[in-house]
Amino acid sequence: MSILSRAFSRLLPMPLHSLVLLIVWLMLNSTTSLGHILLGTVLAIVIPVLCAPLRIPQPKIKRPFKVVSYVFLLLKDIIIANFEVAILVVGPTRRIKPGLVAVPIDLVDILPITVLVSTVTMTPGTVGADISKDKKWLYVHVLDMPENEQEVIDLIKQRYESRVKEIFGC
Amino acid sequence: MSFTVELIISAFLILGGLFVLVGSIGLIRLQDFYVRLHAPTKATTLGLGCVLIASIVYMYHIQGYASINELLITLFLVITAPVTAHILAKVAMHHRVKVMQRTRNQHLIETARMQLPPENDNKKQDQDN
């Protein structure tokens, strides 16, 4: 039994990734013909085997349902902020007050931080610029700084970071 | 194709085109590199999102089933757009690209460049106050 499971884990070091690869391959070709299923299966086995040694262990998503609500929240924010920024860009440029903010972050692992920074960059008006080496500070360039920069920090921390924390359960 | 479907598709296309246009206008009008960086990130999110929705509706009416390629394009965009914006901002910092005079907290660029925590941030704020 153990030999069997070891062989299985050697053949499929990342079973979930393999499945996603197969699905994406079929979606890319938008077919479910036998030929493409076979080709996709071969790719789904070979690519993870080649990539497995490069893997860095990441924290798992603890609450998958939170991800759905997070995505919808993000979608809503992106749409609202898009209109705000569009008005700002077309309007008089004198009104734009850019600025930099250092946001203290509590997340530890790389994957949650990446998700947070991507979120910050996706929402218009803020671009994540860099992270300090100790991974405790996130530098954000803000297109339109409010008078009190604490507002930006609170927005990022309460609206996004707390939810990312919940998703990864840390 | 019925009139309503055509109307929906054109509305999404126009809205998407408008946002991409605003992104391009921003690229010309805004003054420094960091501020310009905000414009294309906008265009890719909502502008292309609208175009993709229009494409999904159109394909659904031509083929009778929704094609999934658009969803994949959205997925790839969502993954790649923030990474490019982040890398561009990082490179700009390392090249010491000029920032707008009005930019606040310019001292943070130097600490961010060296990836150091903003150590004397509180002191500076006290001085400002």
TrEMBL record, chain A:
TM segment ranges: 7-28, 34-55, 67-90, 110-129
Subcellular locations according to the entry: Cell membrane
GO terms under cellular component: plasma membrane
GO molecular function, one term: monoatomic cation transmembrane transporter activity
Primary location class: membrane
Keywords: Cell membrane, Membrane, Transmembrane, Transmembrane helix
The keyword Cell cycle appears for this protein: no
One Pfam family this sequence matches: MNHE
Superkingdom of the source species: Bacteria
Membrane topology recorded in Swiss-Prot or TrEMBL: Multi-pass membrane protein
Cell membrane among keywords: yes
PANTHER family: NA(+)/H(+) ANTIPORTER SUBUNIT E1, NA(+)_H(+) ANTIPORTER SUBUNIT E1
Family label: Belongs to the CPA3 antiporters (TC 2.A.63) subunit E family.
Name of the protein: Multicomponent K+:H+ antiporter subunit E
Automatic annotation (TrEMBL), chain B:
Domain of life of the native organism: Bacteria
Span of the signal peptide: none
Keywords, ordered alphabetically: Membrane, Transmembrane, Transmembrane helix
GO molecular function annotations of the record: sodium:proton antiporter activity
InterPro entries: PhaG_MnhG_YufB
Keyword Transmembrane helix assigned: yes
Pfam families noted in UniProt: PhaG_MnhG_YufB
Segments passing through the bilayer: 6-28, 40-60, 72-92
This protein's name: Multicomponent K+:H+ antiporter subunit G
Species this protein is from: Brumicola pallidula DSM 14239 = ACAM 615
Organism lineage: Bacteria, Pseudomonadati, Pseudomonadota, Gammaproteobacteria, Alteromonadales
